[in-house]
Design brief:
single chain, 329 residues, mainly alpha, two-stranded antiparallel sheet, 11 helices
C-alpha cells in the first residue's frame, strides 16, 4: 500500500485526545501499582495532564509545537516505565523454563526457544531503561535550557548529566542562563548525585555499556553465561567488560591443573549477580533516581513556566531536525 492511495481526509484521522480534564486511567493505575515514580505522576497531574488548552508562556510559540513536544516526552517516559515492568514480568516468568544439560539428562521438559527470548527481552529492557534516562535529560534540556554543557534539546543524553556530576560545578557556556536556572540545575545535581555514587553508578554504567553494544553490534556480542546451583538450577550472568567472548575461556587441550584458575579468572569478567537480580537492582535505582529528579524538576517547571517563551529550546529543536524525503509515486 502506498501513502498516496490512502484516504487521508481530516474526517478519517484518528488521534489521541489532545485536551484533558483529568488524569488518564492508565496513569492512575500505574501510579497506584507503583509502576512509575510518584513525582512523575505529580508532575503530570499538577500540570493539568499537559492538556493543550493550558499552555504556559515558556512553551507557547503560538502553534502548540513546543508544548506538544514536551508532552510527547512525558508520555514516552510513561510508556518506557510500563515497558520495563512488562519486560521484567516476562523475564521472571520464563527464566527457568529453558534448556539445561541437567534437564536433558533427567528428561525434564524445556522450551528450546527460551534462551533466545531472554536475550531479546534483556536487549529491549536496557534500551527502555536508557530511554528513561535520556527522556529525563530531554526534559532538563527543555526546562533548564543550556544549564548543562552539551545537553541539547532533541539530542539530550543522560551521559551529559553524568559528566556534569563528575566535574561539578560545570555550567553551560551561555550568558543568557539566568540565576534562577542556575539555582535549579544546582538543586537537581545535588539531589540526584547521591543516587549516582559507588554501586549505583557502576550499575548505570553497565546498562549503558550493554545498551551501546547490544544495539550497535547485536545480542551475541554479549554472551550470556549460565551457572547452576547445588539443586541443578541454572542462572544467567552478563559480562561486565567488552570485548569478551566465551571462546577465550575455553581450551581444546587435555584438562590440566590450570583449568580451574583459568575459569575463575574468566568469570570475573561477568556481573556478580544474575540477570533477574540485576534488573531488580536497576529498576529500584531508576525509580528512586527519577523520583528524586522529578522532585526538583516539578519545582523548576513551576518557576520557569511563566517566563518569556523559550526561544533557545525551539532553536535547538529546529537545528536538530532530520528528514528523509520520499517520492509520492
Amino acid at each position: 500500500m502506498k501513502l498516496k492511495d490512502l484516504n487521508i481526509s481530516p474526517d478519517m484521522a484518528v488521534t489521541s485526545p489532545l485536551l484533558s480534564s483529568s488524569p488518564d486511567k492508565k496513569w492512575i493505575e500505574a501510579h497506584e501499582r507503583k509502576l512509575i515514580p510518584t513525582n512523575l505522576y505529580v508532575f503530570y497531574v499538577n500540570n493539568n495532564c499537559f492538556s493543550l488548552n493550558i499552555i504556559p508562556n515558556y512553551f507557547d510559540n503560538g502553534n502548540c509545537f513546543m508544548f506538544g513536544y514536551l508532552k510527547s516526552i512525558i508520555i514516552a517516559m510513561f510508556s518506557s516505565f510500563i515497558e520495563i515492568n512488562n519486560l521484567t514480568d516476562e523475564l521472571k516468568l520464563i527464566y527457568h523454563k529453558g534448556y539445561s544439560p541437567i534437564k536433558r539428562i533427567k528428561d525434564i521438559p524445556y522450551d528450546k526457544n527460551v534462551d533466545d527470548r531472554i536475550t531479546l527481552l534483556y536487549k529491549y529492557y536496557v534500551i527502555s531503561v536508557v530511554s528513561i534516562l535520556d527522556q529525563f535529560s530531554e526534559l532538563v534540556a527543555l526546562i533548564l535550557t543550556n544549564t548543562v554543557k552539551g545537553l541539547k534539546v532533541g539530542k539530550a543524553s543522560f551521559t551529559k548529566i553524568l559528566i556534569t556530576i563528575d566535574n561539578c560545578p560545570r555550567e553551560g557556556n551561555h550568558a543568557e542562563i539566568t540565576e534562577l536556572k542556575k539555582s535549579c540545575i544546582s538543586m537537581l545535581i545535588e539531589k540526584i548525585k547521591p543516587m549516582l555514587s559507588d554501586d549505583n553508578r557502576r550499575m548505570i554504567d553497565l546498562i549503558y555499556l550493554h545498551r551501546n553494544k547490544l544495539t550497535h553490534l547485536g545480542c551475541y556480542t554479549f554472551p550470556i553465561f549460565s551457572l547452576h546451583d547445588e539443586e541443578g538450577l541454572f542462572y544467567k550472568f552478563l559480562p561486565s567488560v567488552w570485548p569478551i567472548n566465551i571462546e577465550s575461556g575455553i581450551t581444546i587441550s587435555d584438562r590440566d591443573e590450570n583449568d580451574h584458575s583459568r575459569f575463575n579468572s574468566y568469570i570475573k569478567n561477568f556481573a556478580n549477580i544474575d540477570i533477574i537480580e540485576l534488573i531488580k537492582e536497576v529498576h529500584s535505582i531508576i525509580i528512586d533516581l527519577m523520583n528524586d529528579g522529578f522532585s526538583v524538576l516539578n519545582t523548576s517547571y513551576d518557576l520557569v513556566k511563566n517566563l518569556p517563551f523559550n526561544k533557545e529550546a525551539l532553536k535547538q529543536i529546529n537545528s536538530n531536525r532530520e528528514k528523509i524525503n520520499f517520492t509520492t509515486q
